[in-house]
Amino acid sequence: MKPKDLDYMPLNGTEYFDGSKWVCPMNFEKAIKGENARDSVYIHDVTLRDGEQTCGLTWNEDQRVRIGVALNELGVKSIEVGMPVVSDENKRAIRRLVDMNLTSEIVPFARAMKKDIDASLECGAKRVVVEHAINPYDNEYVYGVSAEKVIDRVVTAIGYAKEQGMVPTFMGWDTTRSTFDYVFKVFTEVARQAKPESIVFVDSFGVASPFTIEFVFTELRKAIPDIPLEFHVHNEFGLAMGSVFAAVRAGAAGIHSSINGLGERTGNVATEEVAAGLKLLMGIDTGVNLEKIAYTSRLVEDISKIPVANNKPVVGKRLFWVESGIVVDAIDKLNEAGIEPAMTPYLPSLVGMGEIQVKLGAFSGQASIKYWLKRLGITCSDDQLEELTEIVRKEGRIRNAVLEIEEFKKIVSDYLG
């Protein structure tokens, strides 16, 4: 059943509403979406490399392969599989993934050094990410090189990778703790001299505001119009998704992200949030199969032994639990009007999360009790419904928890005899 369109705001046939989602209509105004945003943006997933830099986490060979296969099934464009120069185990895992001829591109990670690129070649990889710090203080005190030497080092490494038949991406990290002039100088010179396949701007410490990110990508696109720009961001101040939207609005072609937001410190922006957010809030496709998001998240959670928060965006286990009686009543009435995503921005099935669950507890209302009585095939009077509601609320307050259905059935049985 389709809902009736009301004055000022139609629902049917719009970008912001369908049978599975209901989001902000203003998102899709041309002035807000931006003139430079693309119709599609690819995801370069870094779970196996930057995700492994989560303190205390390491992937063994089989785990790396298993997650790589899952990421391929999820539909990400490319998978950053780790640094082959680190260990033979890494090399074996990367070689196994390369030999599977997956749809996703298998991309090792290398410093701007010949031995790192050679290690990637030994794995059979056709692509490689070549990285270097783009911060004058890193380069002065850690690497002992000037800006000119950084450019020369990166250009040489990219040139060598190309000579070996590889397709290199240049990733300049710690760029947001540098001045724009310094970053601009290095990026434009590397683009001019080396012409990498793509260039990655990195907010390594999550310290740039989304406004800064939009400005930087706007200016870099003007200066480097022929090379796709990618964005890699950490979440120190909870701004990662906002910065992703800013980068995409300004024309970013690819986003680096990890499943469940794994990564150093606060982690990388989460792949599941990027895929769902861009698709549902901007109408921008990432190639990711949204229905496989929950499965992939759970797989990485199981292997990493790092639990996902119950209220984690997109994949939190309690995102679609409903306890409030007022909310359940609104859901019932809006559902009757043909509006299924009533009290959530999208239905849980859209991201493989099952269905909305009405829970019973301290904030339950009569609508919640009626919902479960109907499902259990039990009828009662209005007065009994009112008393049952109060009993459930009291028990929820005592327990400070939601009640299991078996517990509710016992309450009903004890009350109704």
Indicate the CATH topology of the largest domain. Answer: TIM Barrel
Low-confidence stretches: none
Envelope shape: elongated
The level 1 CATH classification of the largest domain is Alpha Beta
- Kindly report the spatial arrangement of strands forming the biggest sheet: 3-4-5-6-7-8-9-10
Q: Biggest sheet: strands, sense, closure? A: 8 strands, parallel, barrel
The overall pLDDT average reads 95
CATH superfamily of the largest domain: Aldolase class I
H and E order: EEHEHEHEHEHHEHEHEHEHHEHEHHH
Number of helical segments?
Answer: 15
CATH architecture of the largest domain: Alpha-Beta Barrel
The structural domain count equals 2
Helical residue percent band:
40-55%
Indicate the radius of gyration in whole angstroms. 25 Å
Describe the structure.
The chain is an alpha/beta fold and 417 residues long. The chain folds into two domains: 25-304, Aldolase class I (TIM Barrel), CATH 3.20.20; 321-416, no CATH class. Helix content is 43%, strand content 13%. The chain has 15 helices and twelve strands. It has helices spanning 30-33, 61-74, 88-99, 114-122, 136-143, 147-163, 180-194, 210-223, 240-249, 271-282, 293-304, 325-336, 366-375, 382-399, 405-416, and strands spanning 17-18, 21-22, 42-45, 78-82, 105-111, 127-133, 167-173, 198-203, 229-233, 254-257, 321-322, 357-358. The strands form three sheets. An eight-stranded parallel β-barrel has the order 3-4-5-6-7-8-9-10, surrounded by nine helices. A two-stranded antiparallel sheet has the order 1-2. Strand 11 (321-322), helix 12 and strand 12 form a beta-alpha-beta unit. It is elongated, with a radius of gyration of 25 Å. The protein starts with 16 loop residues before the first strand and ends with a helix. The mean pLDDT is 95.
